[in-house]
């Protein structure tokens, strides 16, 4: 059966507040989805969406059309080509030059639906997760292994935001620090040179973070940006009162503005780390799942708390990045000795291909079907999943890599993310790699000992 | 070396692309090697790599180019890639004066981590942004003369100057290397360079490719 789904919706008449932590219940009052099955067309009124639980929203709708595409159009339809979005909000009808390619409904390629069985699996999982979330502290105490097992299977996308926030204790953090995020996000620039340098560095990366995601996509037209709304990470509406604040050539879209505020807030919260390139992808990915303030607190959690503890990687000197790369190199040798031998012969070092994989936890270049599954686990079990997925990726392509020379390997690695057809499959395969935590700890100690020698 | 020779070339030169974040290093590389420009390219994390062969003075020269992350703290990771490089394109953005002011710091970085005889070319990128120009050509030219650097302005967007920049630095490295090699031969009447090797200007010897610490 082939079916395609198109969604159209219009922005609400009211403008969004300056900072909209609750913007998740999207302005979908006029949302309709039309499902085209074979030649018959069916329109589904989705006004019910606005009454769905906060983080359910449109994702709920999409879980029913797993493999199907969503077409987004703004109110001013006709002038702009439709944006065709995948289930994570990335624009799929964009060519390699970043131009949106018009796709008339009739010309739209039809996709194979996965069928009802997948949906029912998804529904069963969703129910299980709802039950777990309702008795979270209890289940974490009594059945932590069950939780981990289910995390490793992947959180249903509809539940993902809630689970992530729970794993990162975001609610507690917000309650303990009322108003702190607003304070950081709204703080006026101080004259300090260091602060300015940090903000300039952030500024340079804002346009370079997921430009193909509907939340961050800049169509280069100011007025349009005010009329478009996105179900992914909230409103793209421009707050009119911010127009004067920005000394920019053109207004940036709301998703970009959110990202900028989150990164700025973090740099104020943790001035020793400030901002380091790579954090933009992580924060940007969060914004596609949770609200702006929640993204900030998640960033705080993964940077400064176990099991993720990423701030050592991003701080001045990037000391722990060296540690992680050392561990990764050793693991490739231990788990994939043939490949490691070939890489050694060709002078391929792990830093040449895996730095961005590990430093950004795959967010910077991999598709979200892999990325989100990694993060489902990473938030609970930390770095083990990161290394496992690296090994699983290399294992997947080992036979090809063994045939390639130095330059060919690096060219292959550059395009590798696009070569992965099913990111979820890679993550599932990675779980079976017999890597233990003590193994990682041993290598970390080895690295530390080497540092002391120098 | 362990690498197959997939294409014929006489010399293999390792080049690094350095300079502040956002000046357009990755787009210079993609314009030169693939004739592509990406308006929405993502920030480079760590290092990226590409190659291209050119003809210079009747020889085929293959450039192995390493593109590096621009943020200062990344130097802890990227500086390992300076080793064995015979050329560096030090890029700034003509529309952002601070990126030009930082050129001195990048030169120091090269002095600390790269070969002493590395050929450096100062590249003022984004020359298409005429209305936003913040660094005058004269200013940059004076600076490059003072520091004995080659200099060119480029636009990865409209492609102007890009091929010329790489062509010039590779040719210059080749000439320098030939001259050095000749002198070495005269002095020692000894070993000549074999083709297909990465050349180090400091010792005229053979380098392993892709080396890093």
Describe the structure.
The complex is a heterodimer of chains A (454) and B (213). Chain A has four domains: 3-76, no CATH class; 121-167, no CATH class; 190-306, Orthogonal Bundle (Helicase, Ruva Protein, domain 3), CATH 1.10.8.270; 313-453, Ypt/Rab-GAP domain of gyp1p, domain 3 (Cyclin A, domain 1). Helices cover 52% and strands 6% of the residues of chain A. Chain A has 22 helices and six strands. Residues 1-78, 106-116 and 222-250 of chain A have low confidence and may be disordered. Chain B has 213 residues and is of the alpha/beta class. In chain B, strands 1, 2, 3, 4, 5, 6, 7 and 8 form an eight-stranded mixed β-sheet that branches. At the A-B interface, helix 8, helix 14, helix 16 and helix 20 of A face strand 2 of B.
Can you give me a brief rundown of this structure?
The complex is a heterodimer of chains A (454) and B (213). Chain A has 454 residues and is mainly α. Chain A has helices spanning 57-63, 116-134, 136-142, 144-153, 157-167, 170-176, 180-186, 193-206, 222-225, 254-269, 279-287, 292-304, 311-314, 319-335, 337-345, 350-359, 368-381, 383-396, 398-401, 406-419, 423-431, 437-453, and strands at residues 2-8, 32-37, 40-45, 70-72, 83-85, 111-112.
CATH classification class of the largest domain in chain A:
Mainly Alpha
SSE-based structural type of chain A: mainly alpha
> Which percent band covers the strand fraction of chain B?
15-25%
Helical content band of chain B: 25-40%
Structural class of chain B: alpha/beta
How does the major sheet of chain B shape up? Answer: 8 strands, mixed
In round numbers, the mean pLDDT of chain B is 88
Q: What is the CATH superfamily label of the largest domain in chain A?
A: Ypt/Rab-GAP domain of gyp1p, domain 3
Oligomer: heterodimer
The largest chain-to-chain contact, stated as pair and per-chain residue counts, equals: A-B, 44 and 36 residues
Distance between the termini of chain A: 64 Å
The CATH superfamily of chain B is P-loop containing nucleotide triphosphate hydrolases
Distance between the first and last residues' Cα of chain B: 17 Å
């Amino acid at each position: 059966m082939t079916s395609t789904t198109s969604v159209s919706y219009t922005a609400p008449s009211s403008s969004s507040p300056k900072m909209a932590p609750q913007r998740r219940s999207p302005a979908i009052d006029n949302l309709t989805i039309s499902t085209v099955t074979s030649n018959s067309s069916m329109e589904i009124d989705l006004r019910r969406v606005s009454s769905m639980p906060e983080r359910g929203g449109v994702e709920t709708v999409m879980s029913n059309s797993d493999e199907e595409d969503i077409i987004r159009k703004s109110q001013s339809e006709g002038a702009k080509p439709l944006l065709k979005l995948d289930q994570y909000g990335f624009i799929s009808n964009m060519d390699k030059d970043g131009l949106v390619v018009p796709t008339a409904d009739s010309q739209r390629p039809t996709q194979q639906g996965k069928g009802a069985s997948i949906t029912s699996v998804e529904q069963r999982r969703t129910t299980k997760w709802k039950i777990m979330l309702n008795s979270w502290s209890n289940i974490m105490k009594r059945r932590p292994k069950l939780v981990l097992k289910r995390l490793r299977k992947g959180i249903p996308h509809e539940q993902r935001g809630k689970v992530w926030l729970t794993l990162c204790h975001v609610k507690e953090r917000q309650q303990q620090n009322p108003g702190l995020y607003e304070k950081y996000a709204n703080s006026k620039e101080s004259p300090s040179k260091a602060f300015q340098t940090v903000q300039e560095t952030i500024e340079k990366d804002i346009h370079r973070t997921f430009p193909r995601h509907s939340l961050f996509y800049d169509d280069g037209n100011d007025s349009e940006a005010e009329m478009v709304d996105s179900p992914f990470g909230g409103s793209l509406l421009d707050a009119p009162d911010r127009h004067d604040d920005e000394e920019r050539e053109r207004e940036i879209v709301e998703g970009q503005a959110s990202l900028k505020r989150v990164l700025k807030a973090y740099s104020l919260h943790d001035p020793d780390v400030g901002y380091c390139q790579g954090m933009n992808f992580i924060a940007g990915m969060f914004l596609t799942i949770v609200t702006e303030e929640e993204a900030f607190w998640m960033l705080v959690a993964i940077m400064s708390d176990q099991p993720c503890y990423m701030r050592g990687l991003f701080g001045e000197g990037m000391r722990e990045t060296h540690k992680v790369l050392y561990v990764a190199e050793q693991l490739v040798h231990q788990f994939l000795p043939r490949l490691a031998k070939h890489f050694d012969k060709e002078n391929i070092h792990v830093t040449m291909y895996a730095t961005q994989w590990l430093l950004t936890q795959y967010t910077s270049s991999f598709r979200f079907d892999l990325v989100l599954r990694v993060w489902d686990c990473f938030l609970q079990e930390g770095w083990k999943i990161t290394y496992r997925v690296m090994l699983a990726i290399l294992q997947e392509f080992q036979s090809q890599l063994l045939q390639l020379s130095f330059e060919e390997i690096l060219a292959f690695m550059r395009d590798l993310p696009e070569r992965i057809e099913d990111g979820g499959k890679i993550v599932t395969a990675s779980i079976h790699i017999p890597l233990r935590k003590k193994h990682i700890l041993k290598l970390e100690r080895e690295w530390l000992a080497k540092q002391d020698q120098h | 070396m362990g690498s197959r020779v997939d294409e014929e070339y006489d010399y293999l030169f390792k080049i690094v692309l350095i300079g502040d974040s956002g000046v357009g290093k990755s787009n210079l590389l993609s314009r030169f090697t693939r004739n592509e420009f990406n308006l929405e390219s993502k920030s480079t994390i760590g290092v990226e790599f590409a190659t291209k062969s050119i003809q210079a003075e009747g020889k085929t020269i293959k450039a192995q180019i390493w593109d590096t992350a621009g943020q200062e703290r990344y130097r802890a990771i990227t500086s390992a890639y300076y080793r064995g490089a015979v050329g560096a394109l030090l890029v700034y953005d003509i529309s952002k004066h601070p990126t030009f002011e930082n050129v001195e710091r990048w030169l120091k970085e090269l002095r600390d981590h790269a070969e002493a005889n590395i050929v450096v070319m100062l590249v003022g990128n984004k020359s298409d942004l005429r209305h936003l120009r913040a660094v005058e050509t004269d200013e940059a030219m004076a600076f490059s003369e003072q520091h004995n650097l080659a200099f060119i302005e480029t636009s990865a967007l409209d492609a102007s100057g890009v091929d010329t920049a790489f062509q010039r630095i590779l040719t210059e490295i080749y000439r320098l290397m030939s001259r050095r090699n000749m002198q070495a031969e005269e002095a020692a009447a000894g070993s000549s360079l074999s083709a297909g090797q990465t050349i180090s200007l400091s010792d005229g010897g053979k380098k392993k490719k892709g080396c890093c610490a």
